[in-house]
UniProtKB/TrEMBL annotation:
HAMAP family: Glycogen_synth (MF_00484). The keyword GTP-binding does not apply. Its EC number is 2.4.1.21. It comes from Mesorhizobium marinum. ADP-alpha-D-glucose binds at residue 15. This is Glycogen synthase. GO terms for molecular function: alpha-1,4-glucan glucosyltransferase (ADP-glucose donor) activity. It catalyses: [(1->4)-alpha-D-glucosyl](n) + ADP-alpha-D-glucose = [(1->4)-alpha-D-glucosyl](n+1) + ADP + H(+). Residues 286-449 form the Glycosyl transferase family domain. Pathway: Glycan biosynthesis; glycogen biosynthesis. Gene3D superfamilies: Glycogen Phosphorylase B. Transmembrane segments: none annotated.
Length: 481
């Protein structure tokens, strides 16, 4: 089977979050299922720097205001189609905004172009590659499916994966005339959304199937609390919606071989983690004592619930923990955490920014990782924590609820616990969960059992890829029936 994937990000070429990890790992896992994937990705500077240009497969004299072309490339085991459109994608800053974090005002145009080209390829614009199915990711790629629906590829099976429903790609109605879609598309069952144009909404409307990144999140987004205004549409399409938990790249995230660690280890050699622990303590200016070392590796945003954690941080420190925080985001939240580090010198350390190597070291050296998200479609940091014996302490929501087994009395007695869960948005519940973890940490054998139980979990992409493969095959069979 030949699949066209369309995504704004793909690891290791361009990454702002977990979306890139998924789109980089899934094609490789699908290949083991007999499915070949070519991924269309914008020609951001980071992407062009990582690949060798080749003869264009497609050329556009005027793609939303400038010349553009598509060429094939290979990188890190991935088959890529690069949309080289300098007027749209070759800019300083991030993929979606400038260096100050402000969104590019023409994002509607940039990702309409990506969708237009995706639909072109779906229609057979590259004769040597006519996909059997098209799989798009998030709002930036979603318009692909609208162009397909109103074009020549309406009968090509399609899947859209929602990585986070909060990001929808909503724009004013004034852009519609420049999208090149028929007038009929500006309707309730098309791209129209609350009087404007909704890219994600358009994809959800047009896709043959919808997936999201955990079973619990698939249920949550059909409710007003988590549906972000799209719960009605999600509920309408409930029969076409599947929740499939993300995997992780177990070759990159492997404590036995990870070159980012001071000392590698396995479930049988957990004591070797001490060298990593010491390195984390030194990097964050923390005292060296026997108290449990917790960490946070996260974007510092409202969604992640870190304002809730900041509000009870004095109480958490008083309970006996130390904390290392790596992340960036909301300026007020950054300030609150830095202030806490100043108040609790040697007990709380904060590094503003993101450092991939440091994140590996923290997973390999800290005792537990805190993830107090208000909502979390899947989450990857808790999976990394499980893999590295860094016990996850998570809010009971989305993929966090699906992947961590709470260390309640029954689970501890059965030896199946892998972490600690608590009610979202509750500082009191978070403090209680931390105190439970500290109490468990005081019994080294019981704590090691929790670590080892998490480390033996199958976190690879193989099981998830098999579910995607089954979905793909069912859709292609429907087309040919």
């Amino acid at each position: 089977m030949q699949v066209l994937a369309v995504t704004p990000e793909i690891y290791p070429l361009i990454k702002t979050g977990g979306l890139a990890d998924v789109t980089g790992a899934l094609p490789i896992a699908l290949a083991r299922q007999g499915i070949a994937t070519k991924t269309l990705v914008p020609g951001f500077p980071q992407v062009l720097a990582a690949v060798a240009p080749s003869v264009p497969l497609l050329s556009y004299p005027d793609l939303h205001g400038g010349k553009a072309s598509v060429f094939a490339a290979k990188a890190s085991g991935l088959d890529l189609l690069i949309l080289d459109a300098p007027h749209l994608f070759e800019r300083a800053g991030g993929p979606y905004g400038d260096a100050s974090g402000m969104d590019w005002p023409d994002n509607w145009r940039r990702f309409a172009a990506l969708g237009f080209v995706g639909a072109d390829i779906a229609e057979g614009a590259i004769p040597a590659f006519v996909p059997d199915l098209v799989h798009v990711h998030d709002w930036q790629a979603a318009l692909t499916l609208a162009y397909m629906r109103y074009g020549k590829a309406a009968d090509t099976p399609s899947v859209i994966t929602v990585h986070n429903l909060a990001f929808q790609g909503r724009f004013g109605a004034g852009i519609f005339a420049e999208l090149g879609l028929p007038v009929a598309a500006m309707s309730l069952d098309g791209v129209e959304y609350y009087g404007g144009v909704g890219y994600l909404k358009a994809g959800l409307q047009a896709a043959w199937a919808i997936t999201t990144v955990s079973p619990t999140y698939a249920v949550e987004i059909g409710t007003p609390e988590f549906g972000m205004g799209l719960d009605g549409l999600i509920a309408q399409r409930a029969e076409d919606l599947t929740g499939i938990v993300n995997g992780i790249d177990v070759d990159i995230w492997d404590p036995e071989t990870d070159g980012q660690l001071k000392a590698t280890y396995s479930a049988k050699t957990l004591k070797a983690r001490a060298a990593n622990r010491k390195a984390v303590e030194e990097r964050f200016g923390l005292v060296h004592d026997g108290s449990p070392l917790f960490c946070v590796v996260s974007r510092l945003t409202w969604q992640k619930g870190l304002d809730v954690m900041a509000g009870v941080l004095d109480e958490l420190v008083a309970s006996g923990m130390r904390l290392a925080v790596l992340g960036s985001g909301d300026a007020a939240l950054e300030g609150a955490l830095l202030a806490a580090a100043a108040r609790h010198s040697g007990r709380v350390g904060v590094v503003i920014g993101y450092d991939e190597g440091l994140s590996h070291l923290m997973q390999g050296g800290c005792d537990a990782i805190l993830i107090p998200s208000r909502f979390e479609p899947c989450g990857l940091t808790q999976l990394y924590g499980l893999r590295y014996g860094c016990v996850p302490i998570v809010a009971r929501t989305g993929g966090l609820a699906d992947t961590v087994i709470d260390a309640n009395e029954a689970a501890l007695a059965a030896g199946v616990a892998t972490g600690f869960q608590f009610e979202p948005e509750s500082g009191h519940a978070l403090v209680h969960a931390v105190k439970r973890a500290i109490a468990a940490h005081e019994a080294p054998k019981a704590w090691a059992t929790i670590q080892r139980q998490g480390m033996k979990a199958d976190l690879s992409w193989d099981r998830s890829a098999a579910k995607y493969a089954d979905l793909y095959r069912s859709l292609v069979a429907r087309r040919t029936a």
